[in-house]
């Protein structure tokens, strides 16, 4: 596993997505209401739109352009028009650092 620093935990706002790039991959990092940090692919599979510009609600991140919501835990779209999942990345917290492995996705 090759963890890379994505951002500081203190940079994250609850229920808001932050776009980062790790290993050349755009990733949306979300601190949910329960204090869990999630990392999913930042590009909507329906329209090539940045998901980090969307809306966090519970355990979902909704694309602002067409309304597809993606599970922060599985990456699966929960409604149309998207039907392909986005990747979900392995996240570890070390002190104030959010570490992400851009080559390791979570199996669901």
Chart the SSEs and their pairings.
Elements: E1 4-8, E2 17-22, E3 25-31, E4 37-41, E5 55-57, E6 60-62, E7 69-71, E8 89-94, E9 97-105
Antiparallel strand pairs: 1-9, 2-3, 3-4, 5-6, 6-7, 8-9
Give structural notes.
It is built from no helices and nine strands. It is mostly beta strands and 108 residues long. Strands 1-9-8 form a three-stranded antiparallel beta sheet, with no helix packed on it. Strand 8 and strand 9 form a beta hairpin. It is globular, with a radius of gyration of 13 Å. The model has no long low-confidence stretch (mean pLDDT 96). GO terms for molecular function: 2 iron, 2 sulfur cluster binding; metal ion binding; monooxygenase activity; oxidoreductase activity, acting on paired donors, with incorporation or reduction of molecular oxygen.
Short description:
This protein has 108 residues and is an all-beta fold. It has strands at residues 4-8, 17-22, 25-31, 37-41, 55-57, 60-62, 69-71, 89-94, 97-105. It has a single domain (4-105), classed as Rieske Iron-sulfur Protein (3-layer Sandwich).
Keyphrases for this structure?
single chain; 108 residues; mainly beta; Rieske Iron-sulfur Protein; three-stranded antiparallel sheet; 0% helix; Rieske_2Fe-2S_sf; Non-heme iron oxygenase ferredoxin subunit; metal ion binding; metal-binding; iron-sulfur
């Amino acid at each position: 596993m090759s963890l890379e620093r994505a951002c500081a935990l203190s940079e994250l706002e609850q229920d808001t997505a932050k776009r980062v790039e790790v290993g050349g991959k755009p990733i949306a990092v979300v601190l949910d209401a329960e204090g869990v940090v999630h990392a999913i692919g930042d590009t909507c599979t329906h329209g090539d739109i940045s998901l980090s510009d969307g809306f966090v609600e519970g355990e979902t991140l909704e694309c602002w352009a067409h309304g597809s919501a993606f599970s922060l835990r599985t990456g699966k779209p929960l409604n149309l028009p998207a039907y392909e999942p986005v990747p979900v990345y392995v996240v570890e917290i070390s002190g104030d650092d959010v570490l992400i492995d851009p080559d390791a996705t979570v199996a669901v």
